[in-house]
Amino acid sequence: MQTAPPERRRTTRPRADALRNRERIVTAARELFVEHGADVPLDDIARRAGVGNATVYRNFPDRDALVREVVCSVMERTARAAEQALAENDDAFMALERFVHAAADERISALCPMISSTFDQHHPDLEAARLRVERLVADVMERAKAAGQLRTDVAVGDLMIVIGQLSRPPAGLGCLSIDRYVHRHLQLFLDGLRAHSRSDDLPGTPVTLQDLRDPGCGR
């Protein structure tokens, strides 16, 4: 007596249109979070994405899930920018410059406050995305230091703070009104990072990633 082979469990893949809708929602949410913060109504996100409210809730059961997806997607794009900069530029400092400008375009600084204010900052997805970005940024900087092009008294935290500060609009100004200045000021900053810049010594000490995670770092 032969026994019938066990049935293979079918794995259902999301349809292409469902994936496109999800991507549109994440893109719209990122734009509106940058413009108005994490409290923007989900109805506005649905409208910007061109989908119905039910589609938003079907993909993201609550605001925390959507914010986390947006932050992780921005970190993933930032990590890819670092990988691309390393792969496509033989000149180590040029790779650093390319990464800094690409990271500023992601407006990651506008999303960072959400990590601590709206959901668990130790969520596995967020931790994995953060560690990948940190490792790749460190690789970009170490390569420039090894080439003698980047001053040795700066660390990853220094770089990320300045990217954040220079790509965040001053209070009272519209987000888009300073876009034309961001890359100009970032280039001025990058020129100051060159190993043979005018300042022989910087005040204070290099900012580490642990310094940035310390709740008392702002004091």
Automatic annotation (TrEMBL):
Entry keyword set: DNA-binding, Transcription, Transcription regulation
Top-level taxon in the UniProt lineage: Bacteria
DNA-binding region: 41-60
InterPro entries: Homeodomain-like_sf (IPR009057), HTH-type_TetR-like_transc_reg (IPR050109), HTH_TetR (IPR001647), Tet_transcr_reg_TetR-rel_C_sf (IPR036271), TetR_SbtR-like_C (IPR049445)
Region (Disordered): 200-219
Residue ranges constituting the HTH tetR-type domain according to the UniProt record: 19-78
Gene3D superfamilies xref list: Tetracycline Repressor, domain 2 (1.10.357.10)
PANTHER family (alphabetical): HTH-TYPE TRANSCRIPTIONAL REGULATOR BETI, HTH-TYPE TRANSCRIPTIONAL REGULATOR RUTR
Protein name (database record): TetR/AcrR family transcriptional regulator
Organism of this sequence: Streptomyces broussonetiae
Source lineage: Bacteria, Bacillati, Actinomycetota, Actinomycetes, Kitasatosporales
